[in-house]
């Protein structure tokens, strides 16, 4: 019983680590995309004000 719990904890730990890394990578990518799109919108608003 204890060995099963030990293996389960190891698996959950690995999945948590993978999920954390994916969150960092995807969060950074989404942040960069939002910054680029925001800059494009701010740059293009002059066309509508004239």
Structure report:
This protein has helices spanning 2-44, 46-49. By secondary structure, it is mainly α. The protein has a domain at 22-50.
Give short descriptive properties of this protein.
0% strand, single chain, mainly alpha
Quick rundown:
The chain has helices at residues 2-44, 46-49.
Write the layout of secondary structure elements.
Blueprint: H1 2-44, H2 46-49
β-strand percent reads under 5%
Report the C-alpha radius of gyration, rounded: 22 Å
Largest beta-sheet characterization: none
Structural class: mainly alpha
Task: Pick out the low-confidence regions.
Answer: none
Number of DSSP strand runs: 0
Basic shape: rod-shaped
Number of helices: 2
Separation of termini?
74 Å
SSE order, one letter for each helix or strand: HH
How helix-rich are the residues, as a percent range?
over 70%
Mean pLDDT: 91
